[in-house]
Design goal:
Layout: H1 3-7, E1 11-15, H2 19-29, E2 34-38, H3 41-50, E3 55-59, H4 68-76, E4 86-90, H5 95-104, E5 108-111, H6 116-131
Parallel strand pairs: 1-2, 1-3, 3-4, 4-5
C-alpha cells in the first residue's frame, strides 16, 4: 500500500437539509472522512450516481417529497447501493421513530443532538463492522 492509499479517508455522504447542521457536520467530520453534502432527494441521487460512498449519514426528516426513511428503503432495494452502511440521525426520539428507521434499513439510529464522540464512534464502528474499512 502506498502512502497516498494509507491516508485516503473513507467517503461519507451527509444527507441533511438544515444548513447550520450541514456546516457543523462538515467541520466536525472532515478530520476523518472525505465529505459530500446533499439536502434533498434530487441532490442525493445526483451524488449517488456520480460517486461511490463508503457510508451515509442520513437525516430522517428532509424537506421535499421523500424523507430519509424513503431514501434508505430505496437504496436498500438497489443492488448497487444496498450494502452501503447508513447511520440515521433524527430529532424524533420516540421508540416508533427508531423502529421505523430500522425497518427502513438504517444500521444505526442516533437522536439529535448526538454527542460528538457518539456520532463519530457510530460512523467509525458501523463502517468497520459493515465494510471492514479501518479509520486512522
Amino acid at each position: 500500500m502506498t502512502a497516498v492509499e494509507e491516508k485516503k479517508k473513507p467517503k461519507l455522504l451527509i444527507v441533511e437539509d438544515d444548513y447550520e447542521n450541514q456546516r457543523f457536520l462538515e467541520i466536525f467530520l472532515k478530520r476523518k472522512f472525505d465529505l459530500e453534502v446533499c439536502d434533498s432527494e434530487e441532490s442525493f441521487y445526483q451524488k449517488m450516481d456520480k460517486e461511490k460512498f463508503d457510508i451515509i449519514l442520513m437525516d430522517i426528516s428532509l424537506r421535499g417529497k421523500k424523507d430519509g426513511l424513503q431514501l434508505t428503503k430505496e437504496i436498500r432495494n438497489d443492488p448497487l447501493f444496498k450494502n452501503i452502511p447508513v447511520v440515521g440521525l433524527s430529532a424524533h426520539a420516540f421508540q416508533q421513530d427508531k423502529d421505523n428507521a430500522y425497518k427502513a434499513g438504517v444500521d444505526v439510529f442516533l437522536t439529535k443532538p448526538a454527542p460528538n464522540e457518539v456520532l463519530m464512534e457510530a460512523l467509525i464502528s458501523t463502517l468497520e463492522r459493515k465494510s471492514g474499512i479501518k479509520i486512522n
